């Protein structure tokens, strides 16, 4: 009897884990039906970040960098809860966001290479905080355009792209 209970508990436990994993993979925003979390960029030169999803909520701070990458973590009507590379965030009105993808270099003197290979020739280096436009990505590298240069950058040096993200 004890073995049967253990087997049932194991099935329930594992079945629950599989269901939770499947749910995590397919989490969608209730307004847009787009994946959550997902990355976007700040369309405007300034964007008020509020404590809650309405104009009545207090402004906690203002994002002041056009094209800044942000992660959308929730949706409510015309509002999106976002966070920046440091995890700071709040609610922002959806028209201040763009689906155009950007990334931020997180490591000083990050090499941009001619090919997605650590031994490939370096075409430029970027300082931490530089924002670039996201192009195609393979499992470990993304093609980035920044400061008039284009090159491949290791994903681990970027914020604004998921580690498992593939883009063509």
Automatic annotation (TrEMBL):
Keyword terms of this UniProt record: Signal
Signal peptide: 1-23
Tree of life domain: Bacteria
Name of the protein described by the UniProt record: SH3 domain-containing protein
